[in-house]
Each structure stands twice: as C-alpha cells, then as structure tokens.
Amino acid sequence: MSAKRFAVLRGDVPRPSVSPETGTDTRDLFRSAFRRHAAGVAVVTTAGPVGFTATSLASVSAEPPLVTFGIGLGSSSWPAIRDQDSFVVHILGESQRDLAALFARSGADRFGPETAYTALPTGEPVLHGVAAWLRCEIRERFVAGDHRLVVGLITEGETVPGRRPLLYHDGTFGSFA
What we know:
alpha+beta; Pnp Oxidase, Chain A; three-stranded antiparallel β-sheet; 12 strands
C-alpha cells in the first residue's frame, strides 16, 4: 500500500471542509455531491393506486432478500406507503424516461390512460414494460431526517433479460453510451 493511501486511511491527510465564511451550506454540498452520483431509476407503487419515482433504491440483503428506498415526509405518496403493508418496485428501462418523469411530477395523473399497468390480486399496480418488478412486504420503516427509509422483503417478481436500465445523473435521465 502506498504511503499516501496509508496516510489517508490513518486520517493524516487534511480533508476538505465546508467553511462558514464561504457561505456554503451543507445542504448545498449534499445536493451538489449527489448530482454527481449516477443512480438507477425505479418507480415504487402501492395499492390505491399510488406511486412515485425513486432513485434511492438499494439492495440490503440477499438472505433474506431485502430492498430499501427513501421517501420524503412531504411526498403525496408517503401516507399510502405508511399505511400499506406492501409495495412494488419497478426497475425502469432506458426507454422509460417519460414514465419516470410522470411519476416524479407533483400533481400528475400517474395512473391515467397513458400508464399501462395491471393490479396484482393484493392490489398493488405492476407497470408494463419495465426491466424488472419486485413485490415486497414492508418489514421496517425508519426515521431518517425528513425522510423515512422503508425496508421490504421481496416475495415475488419478474425480470426481463436484455433490458438496459434507465439512469439518473445531474438532474437528467439517461442511459449507458
């Protein structure tokens, strides 16, 4: 291991800091840093029907199979996620930018005539044409600042081989080149 890398691990190398004199707010730093972090795009739905676009989706565990996402307390979808016992995560394909934008837009008719979906017997909508969908039973809801982290146990789903994922980076939907 190089001396410089070792110094970083020990903490000897000065780290950049946010200076109060520059007026840089840590919320601005947070937003700026995460605009540089590319993320996959998912839509989360639950019975109602209710749904929203999420870029905070993450795998948690393979055994048991758990996923998590964050949802803001101010989201119009939060009351349904809070009150339901299950949800469906949809991994969007690169051709589904319009669907991602629709489910991200406040006040949009997300389940209007232009949205193709089928309701599962348990009531959750499954969007058509996605790269994958996973039905999950809610296991935990954790307080995380102005959001809640929701953890779900995967109970069923489907993947479609060959579908390239939709990505989100710097405020724009895109795909691999």
